[in-house]
Amino acid sequence: MRAFAYTRATDVSGAVAAARDPDVKFLGGGTNLLDLMKMGVEHPGHLVDVTRLPLAAIEERESGLRLGATARNSDVANHPLVRQRYRVLSEALVAGASPQLRNMATMGGNLMQRTRCAYFYDPTFAECNKRVPGSGCAALQGYHRMHAILGASEACIATHPSDAAVALAALDAVVRVVGPGGERAIPIVDFHRLPGDTPQLDTNLRGDELITAIDLPALPFGRRSHYLRCAIATPTRSR
Amino acid sequence: MESDLSVSRRGFLGSMVAGGVASTWPADAQRAEAASTGAPPPVQTALTINGQRHELTLDPRVTLLDLLREHLGLTGTKKGCDHGQCGACTVLAGGRRINACLSLAVAHDGEQIVTVEGLTRGETLHPVQAAFLEQDAFQCGYCTPGQICSAVALLDEIRAGAVSAATADVSRLAPAALSDEEIRERMSGNLCRCGAYPNIVAAVRAAGGRRAA
């Protein structure tokens, strides 16, 4: 792994200022970023740890519920208001990863995990338009039964692994971000990009922007919503 | 039985690790080395591990797992996949189970870490450890420390009312019953290549029942 500097952000403006350096990446739970660094896919020169910023609150607001960007996946899944008013999100969160990973992973990091596939994850494959734009796609002629059916392009057929993002799209969530120019709000359906001919770009977040929260609007149907994952292994629910 | 002259594998490895710790560079030397090569500086951090405070100067790349095993000689926590998939490295950080392999040690500054070595009280095994022995919940034992730390957290989570993918109605806030389906789902972050799963489920069920009694 490439050597990197580690600093802990103490305020949001300091974190955003540090991210003007393109060699900086924000560190949340690290469950995807650190793994990609071990594989040699990501190699930032400086990690800015944002997990101690005051962004972990889950707050009821007049317009709905605000999920802080550094709230852990397990805390959101277990929050009484999420369980009762946004069931689909609680169920989607516990459908993903493992209890250990959900204790580590943040909500902002869940959205920022890389759109990926096994060929992207393994630099011994020279062809990957996500890793090396213009190099081709090893998955197109490879073992690709787990790859994208919808939204794929000739350049890339990788998928985003987040179950939570699917629930957030159903709930019309809005991603709140802050950058050098101030705050802006990105509807969740505009947050992730389809690969097109620039699969190296996963999201419409700029490199110097930090996710601060995810807003859920008040939705009556959220109480009766569910998440059903069709997968090779699906757990049995208790009766 | 071991004679006085025999050297156990664990004892030998332990002494090698202790030697490694003794030869760790002083912090000043590390900083000087970093400055002369342009490498990023080491980071000062303090962690409390199994009740003992450690003040450390670490390369930021050191994972919590490598800190435990390679720097502190706490080899109870195992390295399986090193990618957050097998759960062999499960420890408790601030009372919550995490994968130590996907966690930078410096990111845990100021936290309380508990490993499998920290579960016993003197000579008394933790109820989950005792249940694993009684129910024969392992074969080779490599995944067992992670399974045990995970099960300890699982029982705390159940009591706190946490949900899982096996929970029928997440909107009901009362704690879920400790059914076998709930145990299997909640232990799904810990793989066992020997396939001791039936007895692991029995051990978690027994430990849960015993603690509730």
How many domains, in number, for the residues of chain A?
A: 2
Spell the H/E element sequence of chain B. Answer: HHEEHEEEHHHH
Number of helices of chain A: 10
Oligomeric organization of the protein chains:
heterodimer
Question: Helicity level of chain A, as a percent range?
Answer: 25-40%
The overall strand count of chain B is 5
> Rg of chain B to the nearest angstrom?
19 Å
**Biggest interface and which pair forms it?**
A-B, 42 and 49 residues
CATH architecture of the largest domain in chain A: 2-Layer Sandwich
Protein described:
The complex is a heterodimer of chains A (239) and B (213). Chain A is α/β, with parallel strands linked by helices and 239 residues long. Chain A has 2 domains: 176 residues, Uridine Diphospho-n-acetylenolpyruvylglucosamine Reductase, domain 3 (2-Layer Sandwich); 41 residues, no CATH class. Chain A has a 5-stranded antiparallel sheet with strand order 4-5-8-6-7. The termini of chain A are far apart. In chain A, 47% of the residues are buried. Chain B is an alpha+beta fold and 213 residues long. In chain B, strands 2-1-5-3-4 form a 5-stranded mixed sheet, covered by helices on one side. In chain B, helix 4 packs across helix 7. About 5% of the residues of chain B have low confidence. The chains are: A alpha/beta (239), B alpha+beta (213). The interface between A and B is large, with 42 and 49 residues.
